[in-house]
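Hi support team,

I'm opening this ticket because the web form for multi-chain structure prediction keeps timing out on my end. I have pasted the exact lines I submitted so you can reproduce it. The total is 1104 residues across three entries, so I didn't expect it to be a heavy job. Is there a limit I'm missing, or should I split the entries? Thanks in advance, R.K.
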Amino acid sequence: MSGKDGLVPVLTHVDDLPDVAASSSALRRFLHGLPGVDQVGVEVRVADLATRSIKREAKRFALDLAVSMVDLTTLEGADTPGKVKALCAKGREPDPGDPSCPRVAAICIYPDRVAIAKTALAGSTIKVASVATAFPSGRAALPVKLADVRTAVDAGADEIDMVIDRGAFLAGHYEQVLDEIVAVKEACGPAHLKVIFETGELVTLDNVRRMSWLAMIAGADFIKTSTGKVVPAATPPVVLVMLQAVRDFHELTGREVGVKPAGGMRTAKEAVRYLVMVHEEAGPRWLTPNLFRFGASSLLNDILMQRRKQASGHYASPYDVTLD
Amino acid sequence: MMERLDVRKTYKLYVGGAFPRSESGRTYEVSDTKGRFVANAARASRKDARDAVVAARAAASSWSGATAYNRGQVLYRVAEIMEGRRQQFVVELTTGEGRTARVASTIVDAAIDRWVWFAGWSDKLTMIDGASNPVAGPYFNFSVPEPMGVVAVLAPQVSSLLGLVNVVAPVIVSGNTCVVVASEKAPLSAVTLGEVLSTSDVPGGVVNVLTGFTEELAVPLSEHRDVDGIDLCGVTDRELGRRLEIAAADNTKRVRRAPSAEPDWLLSNGGPRSMLDWCEIKTVWHPLGV
Amino acid sequence: MATSTVPDLVTPTWEYAPAPEARDIVTIRSSYGLFIGGRWVDTVEGSSFKTINPATEEVLAEVQSASARDVDRAVKAARTAFTRWSQRTGAERGKYLYRIARLMQERARELAVLESLDNGKPIKESRDVDLPLVAAHFFHYAGWADKLDWAGLGPDPRPLGVAGQIIPWNFPLLMLAWKIAPALACGNTVVLKPAETTPLTALAFADICAQADLPPGVVNIVTGAGETGRALVNHRGVNKIAFTGSTEVGKEIQRSLAGTDIHLTLELGGKAANIVFDDAPIDQAIEGIVNGIFFNQGHVCCAGSRLLVQESVHDAVIAKLKRRLGTLHLGDPLDKNTDIGAINSAAQLSRIKELVSVGEAEGAQRWQPVCPLPAKGFWFAPTLFTNVGQSSRIAREEIFGPVLSVLTFRTPEEAIAKANNTPYGLSAGVWTEKGSRILWMANRLKAGVVWANTFNRFDPTSPFGGYKESGFGREGGRHGLAAYLHAGSG
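Hello R.K., no limit was hit. The queue was backed up. Here is the completed structure from your submission:
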């Protein structure tokens, strides 16, 4: 039970990872043996990082990077083909008046809209990300969830954003959560897997840390905070804890896992603060769309307005950017 | 009938729960207020003072770790045992302080009652001086008075029993241990009090009683780096007080200066400050989170 | 496995651009007099010294060196003012303090910049820690002024009289607030001597007293070095000395006041143990360790300068700590992103350097992150010493700089024994997720402040002060009033 450093008990080497998942009790011991997270300490750290003052070229860098990290999202019952196409157009060319503006990382939609997006994004490097596994509640039988995943993948999704079974997690059925992620990962085939925790339902930061490790052990490529359908969605303390988890996991295993805050982010200022957090907690290596994304919709326009302000020196109006 | 020859008591020191003679082998003559010989008291040396500090330090951890309820009962027990020794204290006050039997009796009553008064404070000091502090942040923060450790007490020179109780009880009630230097001229009731303490439930070393010359003992105690505080109550020479304070600064001892004149102990119990002066306030912070 | 890799737009190197706080919010006069009896006066001896910006060595202003005669004038002014000030109702005194608190808030940014200029501390700290606490302290004690009967000192407690107050250079304005607010609330008048390297915010405070229409003589500010302080301590016209500073000077003051009736409180040095158990919330513990010793360049009497880490997690903690130290920004104190500012003076820098070389000579292993230091000014990179013995000087002496000594322990008993194995007793830290162990530890630590799962938190309602050679008396909260009042009569 004693890890070499005591901080990640049981797990002393990457070879031990299968052992951790070998039995329900081993998995529980491992997750409950993770160091605790002091909520107030996390909030103090978040507040301290939020005082970073990002100016001039550092800000321009951050804003461009933020645009390139956006998973531009629409997840509504009212999503029509037209809405999805418009979003894809926005993603390809976020600021039509500024060719230097980067395009977004991905368009994030429901599985039955993947084909539309795939067509709309043809020829670009923008990824199509699809939510799946009975998003957003995750309350469906596993075969249904897997069928959901396959539908999206078959339609050409590059990335799958699955939701975990929060009920199983909160009931302490960690192995069930793990098995489900493993099954979904398999169903993903070549597609990248993002695992959505819905941290607003996990509530405690201890749970967020445990879920982070659980998802990484199960093979997640990205860990993601929220569906956007539950309040609170992404919060800085939650993202901080997830960033620390991916950093520690990388140090232990050499495997890089990405982080995606989703929902609740509206302003460029928030986005830059998240990037500061990424920079100082996970490290500069995570400052890439391959390892950090923003799941957002209205956030993009605020970043674009800030970009314009940086370029022109005066504040932009909301009508300077396109509403899609 | 032949008159019975009474059996006299040898007045010794009270250190670490035992009654040793001075390691120096010295005694000094104690007289009554009319100058008549009463007894030879032990004249403690600086080595006896050192031994007493060692004994007090050794007793500090368990005494301060006892529950307040327990300490209160122990102090109450002192009053109980004293009550049974009333007559001896009355006699010692008539010879040592020159009191009439009637006044001596009043003083002894007051001394016994004073133990009862202090005993009751053991579990209330923290209530009146501790607090939960409403800090401006997500933290639980509380302050509590805690015993500071080992206190040297130079007992009042005039009031050899009631004054003594009034400087010893407030020190130990919170969990400190002490080395007390008895009234130089009237040390006998202090030794008898030591006997009372040893037959009560006060653990050995919690109170250590030295008899002898105040200055000779006060100097090493004020210099001793393992003494946390010193009560100069029994210092009547201002210049000696100054020297003791200077020595005490070597480890920033908490010093209570001598009053300009001994108070009327019958009227004054010293109030809570007499106990809190020998406490440190400790403040603990902890985050409030889920 | 197929990849979803998006080509990087930019190489992920991100240097934060300079973000300096505007300096022109502050007007520093070329020279300052002494503030005595509500007026600026010149020293009778005519000697002066220069206060510099430790980050640039640029001269900020010329300040006078108060002599014994100047101190005497200040004490007399305070004595004269005492009669009426102490007779004002508590409510009226409180209103003056509320005014001061508001003025501090109104001028917070200016004072923060001034503090950083004169002291070298990062603007982030003077802006987010010092100034908010300064205002809060005045607010807290303002409210006490008319409630002293309920302070636990008996009915109708009386002020002591004239208080001589000597404060250090590490938190110039905050220490001023800790001294002046309770003294005035209780009805005392004060003569305050700021440290010679950081006099400017105290002199700015004189201006605030004027803006508040505080009666002349209630607050007097005399600048100068050790001699000025000595003159104040040896002035027999004061009723109280309150000192924050080194243990050595504290003892000297205690000796000076021997045989007098002058009251004394001392807030002295420390060598706090920050104790990390194997079940600590590790990432927050790392933050607490960093905050504990690198906050304010380690110029903190309650700094967690001894890291006591459970041996079973030593390597992991050190690895995480080193990674974290690599993210600290050292440099221009006025830059909003600076985490570590300048060492306050050349003298302090040489003391730090001396003790660090002692540490190396004693066989401890020194580690510092890659950290270029500015060419001008006084700087010292954050420093970590491992393999430190309990007997090592760097484990026993207060360094008062950004230098952390790491020791190990095996059991809670050993942690307590090592933590308490010091003449100091100001503060301690405990990191563990086990509640009963926290309380067990807190109970046994001989320290006036115990931070559990946090470190270096301050609040005006929270008493602060030490055990043993860290001094006596408490500042803050209800307990802080006892330092400025005679207990009531009944």
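A quick check on our side: Chain A touches chain C through 51 residues (CB under 8 Å). Let us know if the file doesn't open in your viewer.
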